[in-house]
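Practice problem: predict the structure.
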Amino acid sequence: MIEQKDLAGSFTLPGNSVTLNRMGYGAMQLAGPGVWGPPRDVNTAIAVLRGAVESGVNHIDTSDYYGPHVTNQLIKQALHPYAKDLVIVTKVGARRGPDKSWLHALSRQELVDAVHDNLRNLGLDHLDVVNLRVGGISEPGQESIEEPLTVLVKLKREGLIRHVGLSNVSPQQLAEAQAMTEIVCVQNFYNVARRNDDAFIDDLAAQGIAYVPFFPLGGFTPLQSSALDAAAASLKAIPMQVALAWLLQRSPNILLIPGTSSLTHLRENLQSSLLQISPEVMADLDAVGTRLTNSTSIGDSAVHRGTVAPARKDALPK
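Answer:
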């Protein structure tokens, strides 16, 4: 699909057993509207998955509560039997209500059932990486995660899970988890405008732990700013490519999983790994986050004042 195969280099997870190309793919948007039900075009969804892998992606992010079940079934249909180096990262800790709501699912039985649902729908006998999803929609909570994590640790000992990660957590929750098991990755809300985790990312990098930002393109309020526009013009790229390239240059432990249901946007996302942003432009983009931090958070009134505004239609959550 694109010529280059390195996809911004690679990162080896703690334990030295899993090496991922830094540009991956997030499967959430393959489900129907509202991440519910089947896609409008199953053939296109399958083509996107195959195109990602053919282009060098070896890291796919998913969950069985996308659809629910739909994205995992599409992954299996498109890619099974899987390439030896393909790593499928899934998450547990949530479920979908009959009204399409997003609900916590952190009891022992819910977590065990979720792991087995992922195994069945992906056609696997073990899961490479399972992230425990806690907290709110976009912010970590303050609660202890010992109880739900104990369930995943037991499943890891049983061989159903190879590695454990965390999603939507604080540094304190990470420390609590590390006292129980090795943590190979953290998925939190972060992008060029949403910079709450700057210090956390640096700490994870020092520990050799991957940081995987969700909402890398802004989520429900996709990113756009004059700094992104100017950088895109200078690089002969589009603003969303610059936003992804900024993340890749922000820290070597950042892995990306931008999602799309479009072959065109898949190509655009993957091509962002070729962009090299100068130190001067990086500083300009850094200031986007600084201005937002000093005014208001993304998703609040700053979005509507023009600092950040809606952009590409498919730039939804991971």
